[in-house]
Design a protein that fits this description.
The protein contains ten helices and ten strands. The protein is of the alpha+beta class. It has two domains: 92 residues, Phosphorylase Kinase, domain 1, CATH 3.30.200.20; 179 residues, Aminoglycoside 3'-phosphotransferase, Chain: A, domain 2. The strands form three sheets. A five-stranded antiparallel β-sheet has the order 1-2-3-5-4, sandwiched between helices. The protein is globular.
């Protein structure tokens, strides 16, 4: 982890982009676990990686989001500049257009069939994006999560139903991956914005890549209810094999976050508990 404070962010902006030196810079909360975020004036944001795992995102988004945006029915970040290391800060960082909106919540959208259809429309467009990826965008299959997921299941057996988790995980691994397509890779509630109660934007394409589309079905278990999941699944035309893999992805990623954050972050504990339980319910 690298400590980034407002003084450092200010020095980086002023030195590398003097055209924005006079704009006020304020921390934005809540920030994600991967980046420190500042609002720069009224129209821009500054996003600086906290750790080495996030350092490729600025350049990836700079290359691909401009190409993706015209094909997608919801707004995505628009990068206007990529900053360089400086003043002891070691990694590339990004300046983007500010996207207005509120972070999507279960309370606001879980019962919305309109939101379920909008999510399906977004994924249909993204998964159908026709562009040749670079080699570094190849995503990993579900099977690579096997050892970590089984270890996590053993750790949380006093919180969740171990037998049900093992049954789901075995079933998900038994399903062959779908043909590789473009996928968001981190498609959950915290990466969605709403405006006037409707979905308006999708954020954080750090995991953008090509692989099994079932990974993006995680949103069905982080945001939607049983009824709106049915609407989402029908609109996306998901078969049983892909749905089972999607449940497996939701279980694996939920367990990973739960075991890492639950003891220190009640908000993440609540979100991942919902995700795991809804993945076990399945429909």
């Amino acid at each position: 982890m690298v400590d980034v404070d407002a003084a450092l962010a200010r020095r980086l902006v002023d030195a590398q982009f003097p055209q924005w030196a006079g704009l006020p810079l304020h921390p934005h909360a809540p920030a994600g676990s991967d980046h420190v975020i500042y609002r720069l004036g009224e129209e821009l944001s500054v996003r600086l990686p906290r750790h080495a795992g996030a350092i490729g995102q600025a350049r990836k988004e700079a290359v691909w989001l401009a190409r993706l945006a015209p094909h997608l029915p919801l707004a995505v970040p628009e990068l206007v500049a990529v900053g360089e290391p400086g003043f002891g800060y070691p990694w590339p960082w990004a300046v983007s257009r500010w996207l207005d909106g509120e972070v999507a919540t279960v309370d606001a959208l879980s019962g919305s069939h309109e939101a379920a259809r909008a999510l399906a429309e977004f994924l249909t467009a993204l998964h159908g994006f026709d562009a040749e990826p670079t080699a570094d965008l190849a995503g990993l299959p579900l099977s690579t999560r096997d050892a970590a997921t089984r270890k996590a299941i053993a750790q949380v057996g006093d919180v969740f139903d171990s037998a049900a988790m093992i049954e789901l995980w075995d079933a998900a691994l038994a399903m062959p991956d779908g043909p590789p397509v473009w996928r968001h890779g981190d498609f959950h509630t915290g990466n969605l914005l709403t405006t006037d109660g409707r979905l308006s934007a999708v954020l954080d394409f750090g995991e953008l890549g090509v692989g099994d589309p079932a990974l993006d079905l995680i949103i069905a278990f982080t945001l939607l209810s049983a009824e709106t999941r049915a609407t989402f699944r029908a609109a996306l035309d998901v078969d049983d094999r892909m749905w089972t893999r999607g449940r497996g992805w939701a279980l694996a990623t939920g367990l990973n976050a739960y075991t890492y954050y639950a003891a220190v972050d009640p908000r993440v504990a609540a979100q991942t508990t919902r995700q795991i339980n809804h993945a076990l319910i399945g429909w």
